[in-house]
Specification:
Largest sheet: 7 strands, antiparallel
Structural class: alpha+beta
Strand order of the largest sheet: 5-6-7-8-18-17-19
Number of strands: 22
Number of helices: 7
Helix content: 10-25%
Shape: globular
Low-confidence stretches: 55-114, 124-129
Radius of gyration: 23 Å
Strand content: 25-35%
Order of helices and strands: HEEHHEEEEEEEEHEEEEEHEHEEHEEEE
Length: 392
């Protein structure tokens, strides 16, 4: 072996060692920042329920400005479009709460696109078509409820909840989906759970376990909020996150209404002023703002093509549905245009796509009733229907 070769070998060896150590460092960094459970800072705004029985003192405290100031005294509620860097904190300016109507921001969306799929909503909506029946949900659908709890293989009724679950097929039997038709008398039974009861990334649990811990009659997977830092996370009246997103955002309000909007149309002010109870960021919207079928989606072909799906539908305040579609097996899965048509055929006014693929799971009375792709997977959150919880 020549002298030159002997000199080169130690250099090569040291270079290989450096590359190896750098690789180990990158793996450790990825684990700590993307895989291992990690708590995240929460906005922490609690949105008051205007329909909950209140004392005279609590009514005074329900003023929207003072409510936000109490939980986040320095939070600036930005109204700029998300492309301008919407959210900021540390403002010395006083918080101004303008209780704007829900239609003010409907035309602010842009047709963005990301891995989940951007917004394809037209943004145009007739004010008259958006009017809702203002009858409180507690006074609607009396014929759907029973004085006592009545449970059968595919139904559950009580004084406050009515659920009927069915297995359906479409596309000549090639697609199997599970439909839960849901009536509720109190919006607080439409709950969400987060894995390990901890807000953050990397926390996961089975839909079965989250359903059992919350004594839910039915549960489906949510938007897997913990897999990203973008978008809006409102869970059971608490705003955890409101970051920029080009995804559609779905908001369920205390009055029982539900609206799907482009991410750029969401503001914290509106969420608090209008009484947001839940909000999810995944999408896309499955029906246009006028309830019509969507045939074009600002998403990649992989997202649009046939896959297992989880989605929620909205008829009117107090009446909803949950849909889980099997795929990648005997059931071939469903495309986004097909899913849009399905919700239109069901008669929904709005519908929203949640996390799908192996995540798509429906739990009914403590058991998974669909056939999850790949055996299913754990998730960071779930949508649940429970019984009314007592207030103390």
């Amino acid at each position: 072996m020549t002298t030159d070769m002997k000199k080169r070998h130690p250099v090569l060896r040291n270079l290989l060692i450096d590359v190896f150590l750098a690789g180990i460092a990158l793996v450790i960094f990825a684990l700590f920042h993307h895989v291992l459970p990690r708590k995240q800072e929460s906005v922490g705004i609690v949105i008051p329920n205007p329909y909950e029985v209140q004392t005279e003192e609590s009514k005074k405290e329900a003023d929207l400005s003072s409510t936000i100031a109490e939980f986040h005294p320095t939070l600036m509620l930005a109204t700029a479009d998300i492309t301008e860097g919407a959210w900021a904190s540390g403002s010395e300016q006083p918080i101004q709460m303008a209780a704007r109507g829900r239609n003010n921001n409907r035309n602010n969306g842009r047709n963005g696109m990301n891995s989940k799929g951007g917004s394809a909503l037209s943004g145009a909506e007739d004010d008259e078509s958006s009017e809702e029946d203002e009858t409180p949900i507690r006074d609607k659908f009396a014929e759907q409820y029973t004085d006592e709890v009545v449970v059968s293989e595919n139904s559950y009724t009580s004084p406050n909840v009515s659920i009927t679950v069915s297995e359906e097929t479409t596309a000549g039997g090639r697609i199997t989906y599970y439909l839960a038709d849901i009536y509720i008398r109190d919006i607080t039974v439409f709950r969400t759970a987060i894995a390990k009861n901890t807000y953050g990334s990397g926390y996961r649990d089975s839909i079965e376990n989250m359903a059992a811990l919350n004594r839910a009659m039915i549960a489906i997977n949510g938007d897997y909020y913990g897999n990203t830092n973008e978008g809006v996370v409102i869970r059971n009246g608490v705003i955890y996150r409101a970051n920029p997103t080009d995804c559609d955002v779905c908001v369920l309000y205390y009055d029982g209404s539900m609206r799907v909007m482009p991410g750029s149309a969401f503001t914290i002010e509106d969420a608090v002023a209008e009484g947001a109870w839940q909000a999810w960021t995944f999408g896309p919207a499955l029906l246009n703002t006028d309830g019509s079928v969507l045939t074009n989606f600002s998403s990649t072909g992989r997202i649009i093509s046939a896959n297992p799906r989880t989605a929620i539908g909205y008829y009117e305040p107090g009446h909803y549905c949950m849909v889980v579609v099997d795929g990648r097996g005997e059931s071939e899965g469903i495309t986004l245009p097909q899913l849009s048509q399905l919700f239109a055929d069901l008669g929904c006014k709005a519908a929203y796509n949640l996390d799908g693929g192996n995540s798509s799971i429906m739990v009914w009375q403590d058991e998974i009733i669909n056939q999850p792709s790949g055996g299913g997977r754990e998730s960071s959150d779930a949508l649940l229907i429970t019984e009314v919880q007592s207030y103390e």
